[in-house]
Amino acid sequence: MFCCCREQNDTSDSHNCGQENKLSNTKLKSNHSPKRNRNLIGEYKIIKEIGNGHFGVVYLARPMNSDEQVALKVVKKKECCHKQLYKIMREYTAWNSVSTHPHIVSLITFFEINTSFCFVSDYVNGQNLTNFLRNNGPLVETKANVIAAQVASAIMYIHDKSEFSKRIIHRDISSNNIMLDDTKGAQLIDFGLCTFDLKPKEFCGTLSYLCPEILQGEPYDAYCDWWAFGVVLYQMLIGKTPMKVYAKRVMDIENPKIFSHTKRIQIALEVELLYPIQLSKNAREIIEDLLQKDPYKRLRETDIRRHKYFYNVPWPEIVNNV
Fold first, then answer.
1. What value, to the nearest 5°, has the Cα angle with vertex 8 and ends 5 and 14?
2. Which of 117, 140, 204, 234 could disulfide-link to 12, CB 3.0 to 4.6 Å?
3. What pLDDT, on a 0 to 100 scale, did the predictor assign at position 109?
4. Strand partners, 187
5. Is the CB of residue 170 less than 8 Å from the CB of residue 225?
6. pLDDT confidence of residue 175
7. How would you class 143 by CB atoms within 10 Å of its CB: exposed for 0-12, middle for 13-18, buried for 19 or more?
């Protein structure tokens, strides 16, 4: 088993063969099964590279017979790729089952060629939340709560247990994985670290967004996504994650990455929430309710939409019954 904590787009792979394999195998037998060993890469014209990392490379592309732009994610095969194939199939299965949500980037197709696995998805005409905040600074609350509602609706959708095929924990909710489309609003991406295991133990995710249970090496549940959501909301309103704000104000360190991995975990566990005076009471309360270090004191998923912070905020119709 190989696991690692990602700083940007590092990946974690766990070979958990029970419920996840059963679900993946069922999905692959459906009419939406990925196309295998066909040279479909030649059916797309590559326009330019738009992203890269440990996961692979993402290109802006278009089908040869269309003017529509798409995102083409290419993951090179490893020499011994049984575990990689399992991880790729898990990502495909999860993404395919939830991509109808208006705030999750839609998966169009998946295919495998001799050298790579290829995901084709809708192209997001915008930038990720990390770059947006870096370029524009914190969001005003009236804009932040709309984006937050869109992301929260997507998280509720992937956690929905009414359908077996959607019992998913994302495990990498972060500003890097939230795209801001000029017309569609927030779009959740990257199911590379997701799991169908409802009580996982793997240490994985993006360090600044990890809940205390993961940092302490304990089992955790779907509320790891809500902790990360709370960090994202804080980041939207203040401009930095709680970990970066804490390190700067308390330790006078601009970037905690200068410390060892062990030291950064210690800092993440010690973080105290610091707020600017202009932040509203409702915003402060929902962040504190989400970022309770005791998991039993955190805001329940069923109460998030009803929180005062979301009063009069438009909510995607798809989750009106949540």
1. 35
2. 204
3. 94
4. 179
5. yes
6. 97
7. exposed
C-alpha span between 211 and 291 (Å, rounded): 8
Quick one: which of 147, 144, 186, 132 has its CA closest to 280?
144
Q: In this structure, are residues 242 and 231 in contact, taking their beta carbons and an 8 Å threshold?
A: yes
Q: At 263, is the secondary structure helix, strand, or coil?
A: helix
**What residues contact 22, with CB distance under 8 A and at least 6 apart?**
none
Profile the chain (322 residues) by mean pLDDT over runs of 10 residues: 39 39 40 55 89 86 93 89 88 94 96 92 95 96 96 95 73 97 94 92 93 94 96 97 90 83 89 91 96 92 94 77 43
Q: How many CB atoms lie within 10 A of CB 48?
A: 7
Whole-number Å distance between alpha carbons of 157 and 98: 7
| Helix, coil or strand: residue 108 | strand
Tokens representing 89 are 């199939």
